[in-house]
């Protein structure tokens, strides 16, 4: 159930993500006034273990505790139940960043809740949307967009020169809000990494101070643009591990160090156990499996057939099962 507020609930800014359930009964959409309208929309904690966004929101809102915000703000605090347990999501829950309008997931109550958020913000004429996340693997800070329009690129490059364009998976927050306004997802590295909260807070405040989007184009030398071409998953029936010779697939121990590195043909990601026919599931933007085009399993090794750049590789086996192993990207020319 979504609860909406027109002011910050008392004591909220003093609580870490793990204790928000003491004040909030579930997801909350908080509307705060500011000098400019329409509001900036910010979503945090769609994944309960990714608390950089909440800490950044706390920092900004404490700064303006006795002053007017530069722009009205609508803040969505997502999965407080999972945050209480320090988990991405609970086993009985969907992924809160897969159930927005356009979702292919069968979770009617959660899909209706996210539709309620979109409808509320459509009625308010939202200015821009930012969704703040963390990674579980070693990744730089980067921004993601679902459209290559200039306002979207201006918003993204306020956070990072690394910009990833993607259209899959469906049902994510930024895709839903791209129908209403410039929208971006920002990835702030692992939770607790030095500088992550400050970077997210600075970005949030820059968006609050933005009067309008620039009329000029983003300069090509100010952006490194990538396109997500595939999502890599480990099938449910396949066992896996890291340096685990008894598993169907044994990934190399330092797999997450490959993130945002240009990997070339022949680079080894792992091995298939002798006698096993296990294969990775590699889905393109149309949900077709293109694994045989991208991966080679010659002599039991798992190697790339072409040069690609992975993102979000993680050693967190629970996250791999709940979401994916990684995304594969290629550089694309500036539009």
Describe this structure in words.
The chain has 335 residues and is α/β, with parallel strands linked by helices. Helices cover 21% and strands 26% of the residues. The protein contains 8 helices and 17 strands. The longest helix is centred in the middle third of the chain and has 17 residues, at 108-124.
What keywords describe this structure?
335 residues, alpha/beta, Aminopeptidase, 2 domains, twelve-stranded mixed sheet, five-stranded mixed sheet, 8 helices
| Pattern of helices and strands | EEEHEHHEEHEHEHEEEEEHEEEHE
Rounded to the nearest angstrom, the distance between the terminal CA atoms is 41 Å
Q: Provide the gyration radius in Å.
A: 20 Å
The CATH architecture of the largest domain is 3-Layer(aba) Sandwich
Mean pLDDT: 96
Kindly identify the CATH topology of the largest domain. Answer: Aminopeptidase
CATH class of the largest domain: Alpha Beta
**Share in helix:** 10-25%
Give the strand content. 25-35%
In total, how many domains does the architecture comprise?
2
The coarse silhouette is globular
Low-confidence parts lasting 5 or more residues at pLDDT below 50? none
Class from helix and strand fractions: alpha/beta
Main β-sheet: number of strands, strand sense, barrel status? 12 strands, mixed
* Number of H/I helices: 8
CATH superfamily (homologous) name of the largest domain = Zn peptidases
Number of strands: 17
Structure, briefly:
This protein is an alpha/beta fold and 335 residues long.
Secondary structure elements and pairings:
Elements: E1 3-5, E2 28-32, E3 34-44, H1 52-63, E4 69-77, H2 80-85, H3 108-124, E5 128-133, E6 142-145, H4 150-157, E7 162-165, H5 173-177, E8 183-187, H6 196-209, E9 224-233, E10 240-242, E11 249-251, E12 268-272, E13 281-283, H7 291-294, E14 295-296, E15 301-304, E16 309-311, H8 317-322, E17 326-331
Parallel strand pairs: 1-2, 3-4, 3-5, 5-8, 6-7, 7-9, 10-11
Antiparallel strand pairs: 2-4, 6-8, 9-13, 9-17, 11-12, 12-15, 14-15, 16-17
Helix pairs in contact: 1-6
């Amino acid at each position: 159930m979504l609860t909406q507020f027109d002011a910050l609930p008392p004591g909220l800014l003093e609580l870490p993500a793990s204790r928000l359930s003491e004040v909030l009964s579930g997801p909350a959409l908080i509307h705060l006034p500011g000098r400019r309208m329409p509001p900036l929309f910010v979503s945090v904690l769609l994944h309960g273990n990714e608390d950089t966004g909440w800490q950044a929101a706390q920092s900004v809102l404490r700064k303006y505790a006795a002053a007017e915000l530069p722009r009205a703000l609508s803040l969505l605090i997502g999965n407080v139940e999972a945050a209480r347990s320090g988990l991405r999501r609970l086993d009985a829950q969907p992924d809160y960043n897969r159930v927005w309008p356009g979702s292919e997931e069968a979770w009617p109550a959660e899909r209706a809740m996210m539709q309620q958020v979109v409808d509320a913000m459509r009625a308010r004429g939202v200015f821009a949307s930012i969704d703040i996340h963390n990674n579980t693997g070693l990744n730089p800070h980067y921004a993601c967009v679902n459209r290559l329009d200039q306002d979207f690129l201006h918003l993204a490059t306020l956070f990072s020169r690394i910009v990833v364009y993607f259209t899959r998976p469906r049902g994510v927050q930024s895709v839903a809000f791209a129908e209403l306004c410039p929208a971006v997802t920002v990835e702030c590295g692992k939770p607790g990494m030095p500088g992550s909260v400050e970077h997210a807070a600075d970005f949030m405040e820059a968006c609050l101070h933005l009067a309008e989007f620039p009329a000029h184009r983003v300069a090509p030398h100010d952006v490194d643009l990538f396109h997500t071409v595939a999502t890599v998953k480990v099938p449910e029936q396949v066992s896996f591990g890291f340096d685990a010779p008894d598993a169907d697939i044994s990934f190399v121990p330092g797999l997450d160090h490959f993130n945002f590195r240009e990997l070339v043909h022949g680079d080894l990601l792992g091995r298939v156990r002798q006698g096993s026919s296990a294969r990775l599931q590699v889905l393109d933007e149309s949900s077709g499996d293109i694994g045989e085009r991208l991966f080679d399993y010659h002599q039991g090794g798992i190697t790339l057939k072409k040069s690609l750049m992975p993102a979000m590789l993680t050693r967190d086996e629970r996250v791999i099962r709940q979401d994916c192993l990684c995304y594969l990207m290629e550089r694309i020319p500036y539009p």
